[in-house]
Amino acid sequence: MHLRKRKAAATAAATVAATVSRTGKRAKVDVKNEVEVSSALTSSRAQKLTQDVSYAQVMEAIKPQVKLEPEPEANLDSPRVKVEAEVEGEEEEQDLPPNIFSKVDPADAATGPSNWSTIYNEVVEMRSKFMAPVDHQGCESMPNTITPNLQKTNPQKYRFQLLISLMLSSQTKDEVNYDAMSKLNTALSQLYPEFGFSLQSVSKLTPGEIDSYISKVGFHNRKSNYIHQACQILIQEHKGDIPRTIEEIVKLPGVGPKMGYLLLQCGWGINSGIGVDVHLHRLASMWGWISRKANTPEKCRAELESWLPSRYWTDINPLVVGFGQVVCVPRAPNCDICSLGRTGVCKSANKKLVNSTISDERRAKLMKQRADLTNLINEL
Ligand code: SF4
Predict the structure, then answer these.
(1) Which of 8, 153, 340, 345 could form a disulfide with 39 if both were Cys (CB 3.0 to 4.6 A apart)?
(2) What is the pTM of this model?
C-alpha cells in the first residue's frame, strides 16, 4: 500500500449533493447539479455521501479524501465557486481483479440451506484475491478480451462471439477455447476485414474450414457442423441476431440451457435462469445446496432457482466456476488455502491438508495452479 495524491479541478456551489463512489479501484467524485468535477479522482477509499448539504458541509464531509481549496479570487458567497481538489487516499499497488462479486444481502440469508450465505460470502472473499481463467478467458469475458470493449461498442457482434465461445466451451478448458476463438478472430479479420469475426463472416465458412481453426477443442468436428448450421438459422429465422428467449436459443444445434441462460444474461441482460456448469453442479451438491435427486445440471438449476434470490443468478456462475477452477479443483481440492476448510464450514474438507503447514514444495505446487494464488497463500 502507498499513498498517492491526485489533483483535479472542481466547480462547487453553495448548496450541493455530492457522491463519492467506488468503481474498481477508482473513486470518483460525481457531484449532482451545481458541482462538477472535471476529472476522476483516484482513491481506493469509497465513501457515499448523497444528501443535500451546504458548501461548507461538503468540504467537511469529503475532507478525509479530498482537500478542496478555493482559488484565491473565489467568492464563497457566489453560487458557483471554482476550487482545486486534491485527493489523498490509500491505493492498492496492484490492479484489483475484475471479479468483485457482491456479498449476500443479510435479508436474503434466511432463504435456502442454512449455510449458503456463509459459504457464498467466503467464496466472494477468496475470489477477490485471484483471477481465475473464467475471469478473462471465460465465454462471457472472452469477446472483450479479444476485442476490448466489444460488448459496449458492438453488442450484436459480442452476442455472436459469445454464442460461438459457448458452443466451443463444452468439454474444453477456457484456455483452449480462448486459443480457438483467437485463431478464428485473426483468420476472419484477414479474410473478411469488412466483417471481422461476425455472423457475416463465419456464415461464409464451410464446416471443414471452421474445423481447421478449432481443431484443439473437444468434439470439434461436431461443433463445426453445429456452428455452420446455427449461422444459417440465425440469418434465416432471427434477422442475423441471437434470439431473446431460452426456448428459441435451445433450438439452435449444440446449444443447451446452460449456454442459453448465460447468453441471455450477458448478451441481452435478461436474467431468466442460472447457467449451471460442471463446477457449479459439483460444488452446489458438495455444499448441500441441492438435494441428491438433483443429479443433472437442469435439476440442479431448478433446485437452486427455487430458493436462491434472482439477484444472485448472474454472479453465481462465474463466482463458483472460478473457485472450482483454482481452489476447489476436482479430485485434489486445495483445502489448505481454502477458508471454508480452515474455518470448518466445509464438511468435505481434507482435514490432513487443512491442518498441515505449507511447505516450500507445497507452495511451489500451488503456484502451478491455473491462477496466481500469491494473495491467498500469503494470508495463511
Ligand atoms: S473441499 Fe476443500 S477446497 Fe473445496 S470447498 Fe471444501 S475446504 Fe474448500
Answers:
(1) 8
(2) 0.73
